[in-house]
């Protein structure tokens, strides 16, 4: 469904949506692509459906925005590729936010499973392109990550130590890591792993690019003894970033990263050494 769209502008539709409203399905599958955005300020997941010629919002979500609701003729229906039908409840004059941009657009209201379906009508009007290799959608020079439904249910990605490393006592250092599973998403924020393999070690929250050959993970050893980190050990988890407003110097190595110890000045000794 998506392969034909890579790297080029989406095609214009030949028919007006009212002549035959269609979507691929009323419910997105685990291999479908989603982005995180909002409709009139309400955060929601949006299914990117290049097989749809209409953009839809779910009925219960539209009911929260009654002042934006527009009633339509009762005989308009929606059809899927498998022949399923759903009644169109009306239209919504919506402010759709994707990344850091906001688009004003009238969308249809229907009993669908996903909160929102972005169809070709919306994508081509605002010059979106889909890049499957990077799992992202672009418009106006902005890159917005896309997630599969399966990735949405397991967002966290583990980062493994690239080589065996020793963290000196009461010291802070960078450990080179690699993602356990590649291709789930590109940009992420590192966090302390849920599967704690090293007590007394803190991990800095850092914006990282998972496409790089090695991911720098900043750690702090609070213990009075060195810590051994074996090759392949989980050193951090990563959560995908919805949007990046700016990427100064594309994560240049020359950028100064704040020391974890700088953030510990307000802690007492018991808090610093907590296991």
TrEMBL record:
Gene Ontology molecular-function annotations: aspartic-type endopeptidase activity
Listed Gene3D superfamilies: Acid Proteases
Protein name: Peptidase A2 domain-containing protein
One GO biological process term: proteolysis
Species: Araneus ventricosus
Any one Pfam family match given in the protein's UniProt record, by short name: gag-asp_proteas
